[in-house]
Amino acid sequence: MRMKIGFSTEETTKKVPAAELPAAESMAADPCVVRVYFPARGFACTYYNDKFDLRRGDIVYVDGKLEGLRGFVTEVSCNFKIRLSDYKRVVAKADTEVKGKFYAAGVHFMTFDAKALPYEKAAAWFLPPADPDEAYARGSGAGETFLLEEFPKKMEPQAVERGGAYYAEERVAYLELAGARGRAVVEGRKPYEVEFAYQNGEIGGLLCTCYEVSACRHEAAALLQLRELLQIIEKLYAEQFEQSGYFAAVRKATLLEYAVDNREDGSFSLA
Question: What average pLDDT does the chain have?
Fold first, then answer.
């Protein structure tokens, strides 16, 4: 049975979508102090916030010793008096507002609408905002091209085995294919970004932000997930994919936790 789930919101006042704002900027907000829980460390700390309209469940990033770690707001208080020099600040808030039609695809929800959950928005659910002063380097090599179905033969057996475990553990949190360009977020010791090109059944330009020199478990997990999603599309959603040339898939638990559970208004429907 095919199932689709649609998200919509009903608001009485117009808000500026976060996607329209520069990454390092925000709308003015009433000052508050917030308690932020960091799953990677297993504890919470208190921060000052004067940039974002925050509520419980929001995904945020902070400065200080825990810079770069994803945190979740657990408490918000606008009744306070603090010495600012004693507090670090909230520096970014992820946009979890999702609108669009999603289809069931194994352990993921899938959309064929490029505006519903694009990579730039979804990546902020897992990865800290880029530092504009950070230097990056990229090699000039194109990498090997190989058929998706044959990729296990092109990687070290250990990478394939560990990648298979990651795939089975549902660590591919998000995967997008826009035309020939593919990107994924794979959760290991921390979230990593995987990039690839996919065209006519072939994979090329395979890259990961982890420290491995050769093909890694994150790349293998992403390719296993891509293969599964393409099989589901061929079986159930070929028409939708043909019309858009695009799909994005996000882990069901992630979409429900981030985009649904912390909503105070809106609606969704099952069909």
Answer: 87
